[in-house]
Specification:
This protein is an all-alpha fold. 62% of the residues lie in helices and 0% in strands.
Length: 69
Amino acid sequence: MSDPDKTPLGGKHDWEGFREVDRAIAENRHFKYSIQKAWADPWERKALYLTAFVIACFVIFVIIYDGLI
């Protein structure tokens, strides 16, 4: 990959919206970038809350159903 300290040269085919994504991939932080973008969007934040709630409910169900508590 390229050196993360170097920024890409501006050109005719430079897409402003994807510069941050390209930088995140170059710095190997794409997962963090994706989570930050999801957290900034109110609908995706609600989906993250819902997903965490469903997983927690499933874990609680399994624990109770199997008689672990």
